Amino acid sequence: MKTLITLIASAVFTLVSYTLSAANLPDPLKFAKVETIVDHYIDATINGETELLDYLFTDDFSQSTPNNKNKELLSKNQVMKHLKSLKNVRHACDTNVEFVEKNEDCSIVKVTKYFSNFKRVDYVTVCNTEDGWKINKVLVAYPEN
């Protein structure tokens, strides 16, 4: 009986140690699949979940929004600052995710967000880098209904 209790205590200790060490990884999304990265992007942009935001984008990330022949270009820092300002803010919209292109090196994902009076489409380019899958570029469009 004493051996069983020791074995159970050791198993629990090992599990707790593993869990705590996994939480301190430099990049918790390094081994995530492309679908997981897209899910975290949607969680950040729609649901205000910013915990993993620092790990989603490449260093040269940019977001562009064509607007009446003008092209608004935002850097990684600008987008992250904006998303962090919306922490825990949930937007009332439905989303649809469609992979336009998917391969081992790079994927293009169409994320459509249906709000009550308009539609927003994010074309998200996700690349497989040495640090895992990262979002490299987002092109934002507001198509007419």
Query: Treating each run of at least 4 consecutive H or I residues as one helix, how many helices?
Result: 3
Spans of at least 5 consecutive residues with low confidence:
none
Largest sheet: 6 strands, mixed
Mean pLDDT: 86
Estimated helix fraction = 25-40%
Notes on the protein architecture:
A six-stranded mixed β-sheet has the order 2-1-6-5-4-3. The radius of gyration is 19 Å and the shape is globular. It has 145 residues and is α+β, with helices and mostly antiparallel strands. Strand 3 and strand 4 form a beta hairpin. The protein is built from three helices and six strands. 32% of the residues lie in helices and 39% in strands. Keywords: Signal. InterPro entries: FrzH/put_lumazine-bd, NTF2-like_dom_sf.
Features:
alpha+beta; 6-stranded mixed beta sheet; 145 residues
